Amino acid sequence: MTLLLARRFLGLLATLLAASAIVFVVMEVLPGDPAAVMLGVGAGEENLGALRRELGLDRPPVERYLLWLAALARGDLGLSHTYRVPVLDLVSERIAVTFPLALIAMALTVAIAVPAGVLAASARNRAGDIAISAVAQIGIAIPNFWFAMLLIIVFAVVLPWLPAGGFPGWDAGLRPALAALVLPAVALALPQAAILTRVTRSSMLDTIGEDYVRTARAKGLTRRAALWRHALANALIPVVTIMGLQFSFLISGTIIIENVFHLPGLGRLLFQAIAQRDLIVVREIVLLLAVAVVAVNFLVDLAYLVLDPRLRRGSHGLS
Amino acid sequence: MKGRDVTRFVVAACVALAAAMSAAAAANTRLTLGMALEPPHLDPTAGAAAAIDEVVYANVFEGLTRIDRHGAVRPALARGWSVSGDGLTYTFVLHQGVRFHDGTRLDADDVVFSLERAMAADSTNAQKGLFEPIERVRAIDPLTVEVTLKRPAGDFLFGLGWGDAVIVARESSATNASEPVGTGPFRFARWVRAERVELVRNDDYWGAPVALESATFKFISDPAAAVPALLAGDVDGFANFPAPEALVRFRDDARFHVEIGTTEGETILAINNRRPPFDDVRVRRAIQHALDRQEIIDGAMFGLGTPIGSHFAPHHPAYVDLTGMYPHDREKAKALLAEAGLSGGFRATLELPPPTYARRGGEIVAAQLARVGIALELVPVEWAQWLDQVFKGADFDLTIVSHTEPFDIGIYAREDYYFGYRSAAFDATYKELSTTTDEARRARLLRLAQRLLAVDAASGYLFQLAKSGVWNARIEGLWENSPIQANDLTEVRWTD
Question: What is the interface pTM, i.e. ipTM, of the complex?
Answer without folding.
Answer: 0.71
